From TrEMBL:
Protein name: L-threonine 3-dehydrogenase
UniProt-annotated binding residues for NAD(+): I175, D195, R200, L262, G263, L264, I286, Y287
Gene behind this protein: tdh
Source organism: Streptomyces axinellae
Residues that bind Zn(2+) 2: C93, C96, C99, C107
Keywords from the named record: Cytoplasm, Metal-binding, NAD, Oxidoreductase, Zinc
Amino acid sequence: MKALVKEKAEPGLWLRDVPEPSIGPGDVLIKVLRTGICGTDLHIRSWDEWAQQSITAPLVLGHEFAGEVVETGRDVADIAVGDRVSGEGHLVCGKCRNCLAGRRHLCRATVGLGVGRDGAFAEYVALPASNVWVHRTPVDLDIAAIFDPFGNAVHTALSFPLVGEDVVITGAGPIGLMAAAVARHAGARKVLITDVSEERLELARKVGADLALNVTEATIAEGQRALGLREGFDVGLEMSGRPEAMRDMIANMTHGGRIAMLGLPPQEFPVDWSRIVTSMLTVKGIYGREMFETWYAMSVLLEGGLDLAPVITGRYAFHDFEAAFDAAADGRCGKVILDWTA
């Protein structure tokens, strides 16, 4: 089968013929139809410091996908050949305290699909049945392919109650855009989102942000005043991993405000802990999705009319992966999809 492979420990990706994966009694074999390009995939392609420390070549990368079940192991129940599915890309041990307590997203032995084992940028991918999400109601294939990052957005945005709250989101990348759409759909009063890309800020307006703010031209404090807010934001969603964004967010939260932080900083940075203490702020780290409560919430949100179509801005045949990766890396687009049927 064809697959996108990190073949050598150097920048680049290679489209290669690799063996089709085999499955065990508890696994499912899936024909991949669509995949989404993630920031993790960009790191692996560029072979940056993180990738050099985290990846062992050769590796089939990719963890955002949608496909069709073509084979199930003998012990698999409730998943059938022909089912349209997405996959949870965090594979957990099932034996640690958190797994046994049903908190699988907190497993310390998590292995990432397309990072710690061969992934979904291929014509077929094998997964444990316990990591497969069956779409019981129709979902557009492109949207189904981004359930993984959509889950990050939902997990972050719904960490705290949003109804009637004023929300600030720092970072209008694809996950930030989806979080803005979720916050608006979930009943937030005002949604402000920041970025430095006018193209992404325009996408933010399309998904329902009340104010999309270019922070090279205005501050969050100025945005707060433009929205008529007097006491600061109730909920902050940090999606950028930028130190200055986190510091500006903290400075503009109301007393008792709550911050969910998904953006992963490249290194340690200082924040105003005195402000966090005296303003009684809550800061919560977010990684991945709650299995499978977040997935249930995603499906229900889509059934309820949440529209993520504006977030998808590029679609390429898998053999045009170089152009697709270039588009995803330029920092001005939404989500880029690879079509494995083309």
